[in-house]
Amino acid sequence: MCAITGFTILGLLGWGVYTTGKAVWQNRSTIARYAYSFYNLPETTYQAVKVKVDRT
Protein backbone atom coordinates (compact mmCIF):
# COMPACT_ATOMS: atom_id res chain seq x y z
CA MET A 1 0.00 0.00 0.00
CA CYS A 2 2.79 2.43 0.90
CA ALA A 3 4.73 1.55 -2.27
CA ILE A 4 1.72 2.32 -4.46
CA THR A 5 1.37 5.75 -2.84
CA GLY A 6 5.07 6.44 -3.34
CA PHE A 7 4.96 5.47 -7.01
CA THR A 8 1.86 7.59 -7.51
CA ILE A 9 3.55 10.64 -6.01
CA LEU A 10 6.68 10.06 -8.11
CA GLY A 11 4.52 9.66 -11.21
CA LEU A 12 2.71 12.93 -10.56
CA LEU A 13 5.97 14.75 -9.92
CA GLY A 14 7.47 13.31 -13.10
CA TRP A 15 4.44 14.35 -15.11
CA GLY A 16 4.68 17.88 -13.66
CA VAL A 17 8.36 18.13 -14.55
CA TYR A 18 7.66 16.87 -18.08
CA THR A 19 4.81 19.36 -18.59
CA THR A 20 6.87 22.25 -17.22
CA GLY A 21 9.86 21.34 -19.38
CA LYS A 22 7.67 21.12 -22.46
CA ALA A 23 6.15 24.56 -21.77
CA VAL A 24 9.58 26.09 -21.20
CA TRP A 25 10.92 24.57 -24.41
CA GLN A 26 8.01 25.93 -26.45
CA ASN A 27 8.41 29.44 -24.96
CA ARG A 28 12.20 29.56 -24.83
CA SER A 29 12.54 32.61 -27.08
CA THR A 30 10.12 34.62 -24.94
CA ILE A 31 11.88 33.51 -21.78
CA ALA A 32 15.25 34.44 -23.30
CA ARG A 33 13.98 37.92 -24.21
CA TYR A 34 12.68 38.52 -20.68
CA ALA A 35 15.93 37.26 -19.16
CA TYR A 36 17.97 39.55 -21.43
CA SER A 37 15.78 42.54 -20.58
CA PHE A 38 16.00 41.83 -16.87
CA TYR A 39 19.78 41.42 -17.07
CA ASN A 40 20.20 44.75 -18.88
CA LEU A 41 17.73 46.67 -16.72
CA PRO A 42 20.36 48.45 -14.57
CA GLU A 43 22.34 49.56 -17.64
CA THR A 44 19.28 50.85 -19.51
CA THR A 45 18.08 52.67 -16.39
CA TYR A 46 21.50 54.29 -15.97
CA GLN A 47 21.55 55.39 -19.61
CA ALA A 48 18.05 56.87 -19.37
CA VAL A 49 18.99 58.84 -16.24
CA LYS A 50 22.29 59.96 -17.81
CA VAL A 51 20.52 61.28 -20.92
CA LYS A 52 17.93 63.06 -18.78
CA VAL A 53 20.66 64.74 -16.71
CA ASP A 54 22.64 65.74 -19.81
CA ARG A 55 19.63 67.48 -21.35
CA THR A 56 19.17 69.82 -18.42
Would you mind describing this structure in some detail?
With 56 residues, the chain is an all-alpha fold. The chain has helices spanning 2-26, 28-39, 41-55. The mean pLDDT is 87.
Overall shape: rod-shaped
- In percent, how much strand structure appears in the residues? under 5%
Number of domains: 1
Mean pLDDT comes to 87
Rg value: 22 Å
The count of strands amounts to 0
- Uncertain stretches: none
Distance between termini? 75 Å
User: Given the structure, what is the number of helices?
Assistant: 3
| Helix percent band | over 70%
Tell me the structural class: mainly alpha
Major sheet description: none
Order of helices and strands: HHH
Strand-helix topology:
Elements: H1 2-26, H2 28-39, H3 41-55
